[in-house]
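Incident log, structure service

09:12 report received: a user says their structure output differs between two submissions of the same chain.
09:20 pulled the input from the user's history:
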Amino acid sequence: MPNAPVPPPGVPVLVLNGPGLGLPGLREPDVHGTDTLAGIDGLGRGTAAALGLRADRGRGNHEAVLIDAVHEARTAHRGIVINPAGHGHTSVAVRDALAAVDLPVMEVHLSDIHRGEASRGHSHVPAVAGTVICGAGAHGHALALTHPAQLLEDNR
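09:34 re-ran on a clean worker, output below:
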């Protein structure tokens, strides 16, 4: 009987990126910065490891992909860091999925969603997120991981 793979150490936190996050560094670099997804993921993994977390990555352009990942996180993870991208502005369904899983949620955006187009200044996610970080670029993803680490420490 083969041995099951052993997950890497650390408390599992889902880091979920929505549409457009497959193109950071390419899509409107003057707004979203020049960091690539690989760079953002590397920064997040390093930050998570330093905090005793394991950053499990997910990404999808479609609303249903994000919702399925959030639902699966309910039993596999202890928190969610999500950059819903455009779905944060438009999707009550993503918001409802996050509310249903009863996990700490941190919303993060590379750019400041409150600058620019008025339609992008609103997000449905803060109603269920404990923390919102926007406008800090790739560093915002690292900052967003510090909150679940603190919450988990407080609840030990």
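09:41 both user submissions now match this output. Likely a transient worker issue. Closing.
09:42 reviewer note: Residues 50 and 102 are 25 Å apart (CA to CA). The chain has a mean pLDDT of 81.
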